[in-house]
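Worked example 2:
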Amino acid sequence: MSVSICTIGELIVEFLAKHKNQGFSQPGEFLGPFPSGAPAIYAAQVAKLGFESTLFSCVGNDDFGQMNIERLRNEGVNTDGITVINKAPTGSAFVSYRNQFERDFIFNIPNSACGYLSPEHLDESLLSRCTHFHIMGSSLFSFRMIDSMRKAIKMIKKNNGTVSFDPNVRKEMMNIPEMQQAFDYILEYTDIFLPSEGEIHYFSDQKNASETDIVKQLINNGVKHIVIKRGAEGASYYHANQELHIKSNAVEMIDPTGAGDCFGATFVSLFLAGYPVEQALKYANASGALAVSRSGPMEGISSMEDIAKFLAR
């Protein structure tokens, strides 16, 4: 089956604190810049697997923007949907690690170049070639971005395409009202929902609802496939007539950034390409494991050959 996946959202550079518990309140050393942004990592992983991948975003007319475009192009991503603008610099994120699982961020996204992305930046001829649209919750930081997301969903669905949604919730961004307001809208059109274990409870009307109850509610409301990412505990797949759980792959945790994006890109790509659910889930789990074993947000993307070798060990 021919798979052409497009996604939309932030394309930024990321700086990583050199030492754990370094924080932001005092001078310290940072590593970077690294190409980053959850949609960009997702798009790069899709392309690395050999599928057609298009990213819609904006970068500034600066070296950071050019670096991002060149990196994505080298990975095989169609960068024709990326607009270079003069009115703002390329977005950025600074990351400080408390431990292997907890991170603090300082984002410059809504007021950066990608914050100016609007429906007018979405080339309809490019969109019409896409059979699937993926949206990240972290990208829903402005009305312009939400309007762009609506345009993309409308066009993809009109062409009988499918939609996947990864909430990708960041605590630093949950005070943005536009983001919260967009979640319900997206879920109405979502075919594949990819929350983490800690995010699923954001999507229930009942305060103390169990995960099982929330999954049933989402499926009853029209979400066809739900994949819950459980990190070191593996992953779960739910469908109206199927439930599947797989264990994780043991690896040394170096950097968790991008692992969920690689997982989602791998599952969605293989699932849409007709791979059995169990194989798509196993490959997605391995993709996430490979991602955490490398430092840098986009440095851990993996090819089909990389994943197959990893699983054969």
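The radius of gyration is 18 Å. The chain has a mean pLDDT of 92.
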